[in-house]
Amino acid sequence: MHDTTPGHRATRFTSMLTGDSAPLDLVTIRATVRRALQDRGPVLPRPEEVAELTAALRGHLQVMLEQALDCVGRLDRRTGPWHRWQTLIDRVRMDLARDAGPGLRSATCHMQELGRTARYLADCLDE
Q: Do 20 and 10 touch, CB atoms closer than 8 A?
């Protein structure tokens, strides 16, 4: 439980020590992923929708990345599960470092790539 005295601000470190980190909202994450990956046929989504979904996916991935780092930190280094989590963490970091590129088509492809990564990470964290 966090200290509620005036002027006290909980930090990520104190949350980790006390176990007070908020649970992942996997329902919202998966809904965002579904919107990003929905089949639109040959029609591209509106630029505003791509920007909105990309920003939401980036936020979800950042939150899930913290959870993934916590998971990998509890594993024995150099084991199979540790390597699988490290590979997934590296993938998330690469996707977050990449930009959408010029044009709506490349922005849409980037959004979909973030969506696929978020879907996979959410599934792994939900196990």
A: yes
